[in-house]
Design a protein that fits this description.
By secondary structure, this protein is mainly alpha-helical. Helix content is 50%, strand content 7%. It contains eleven helices and four strands. The strands form two sheets. It has a two-stranded parallel ribbon. Helix 9 packs antiparallel against helix 10. It is globular and about 45 Å long.
Length: 220
C-alpha cells in the first residue's frame, strides 16, 4: 500500500492562510517568478523564515511550486523599507549575503532548487566556506568570474549537501504532480556532481521504505 503524502506543513496550518495573498498573486498566469525584497536587517539577523515558509506552503499548490522552482529572485534593499536596491555586484561581494543564503539551506537543505540566481544557489550550498574566507580565489584571464578552490574535505561536504538536498527535494515533490528529475539532473550538471539521478532516486526510495518523513520545524 502506498504511503500517503507528508507535507512540510499540513493544509490546516495557519501559514497557508498567512500566505494566501501571495498564492493568489502567483496563480495569475502573467506571473512567472517571485521577487522577494529583503531588508539589510533581515540579512544581518539571519532571518530566513519567510523564504522557507513560502517554499513549504507552495507544496500544496503545484502551479505555484512550478513557478518558484528556480524562480525566487531575492533582491536586497540598500536601506530597511527603502526603494533603492543593491546591484548584483554589490551583494555578491558581501560576506553577510553568503552566510544568509547558507543559513537558508542549513535550515531547509533543498532550498537551493528555488533560487533563480546561480550564485545564490552556490551560496546556499557553500556560503559558510566563503563567509569564513577559507577558500582559494583565483582570477583567470578570459573569465568574467573568479574560480573558487575548495579543499578535498570541503568538496566532500559540498557533494554531501547537494546529494542529500536532491534526495530531500524528491521527498518534497512526491505527490505534488511535479516531476523532480529534470531539476535534479540540472543541479547535478550545474555543479558537476559525481553522482547520478539514479543514485539520488535509490536513496530516496530507501528512505521512503524506512518511513522517513519531513516537517517544517517551528519555535515554540
Amino acid at each position: 500500500m502506498a504511503k500517503p503524502k507528508q507535507f512540510l506543513v499540513e493544509k490546516d496550518d495557519p501559514l497557508l492562510e498567512h500566505y494566501a495573498y501571495l498564492i493568489e498573486a502567483m496563480l495569475d498566469p502573467s506571473r512567472h517568478t517571485l521577487v522577494l525584497a529583503t531588508d539589510p536587517d533581515v540579512v544581518e539577523r539571519l532571518e530566513i523564515e519567510t523564504i522557507i515558509e513560502i517554499i513549504a506552503v507552495a507544496e500544496h499548490y503545484p502551479v505555484v511550486l512550478n513557478k518558484i522552482l528556480f524562480g525566487i529572485d531575492v533582491q536586497f534593499r540598500q536601506f530597511n523599507n527603502g526603494d533603492l536596491y543593491l546591484s548584483e555586484m554589490e551583494w555578491k561581494s558581501g560576506k553577510v549575503y553568503y552566510r544568509w543564503f547558507w543559513q537558508i539551506c542549513h535550515s531547509l537543505p533543498f532550498a537551493f532548487f528555488f533560487m533563480m540566481d546561480y550564485e545564490a544557489r552556490f551560496y546556499c550550498i557553500a556560503g559558510d566556506f566563503l563567509y569564513e574566507g577559507d577558500v582559494e580565489i583565483q582570477e583567470e584571464e578570459g573569465r568574467s568570474k573568479p574560480t573558487v578552490g575548495f579543499t578535498e574535505a570541503q568538496s566532500e561536504v559540498i557533494l554531501y549537501r547537494v546529494f542529500f538536498g536532491c534526495v530531500y527535494f524528491m521527498h518534497y515533490c512526491f505527490g505534488t504532480k511535479i516531476d523532480p528529475q529534470p531539476a535534479v539532473e540540472a543541479i547535478i550538471a550545474e555543479f558537476n556532481m559525481e553522482f547520478s539521478f539514479e543514485q539520488v532516486r535509490k536513496e530516496y526510495r530507501k528512505q521512503r521504505a524506512q518511513g522517513m518523513i519531513f516537517r517544517l520545524g517551528k519555535d515554540e
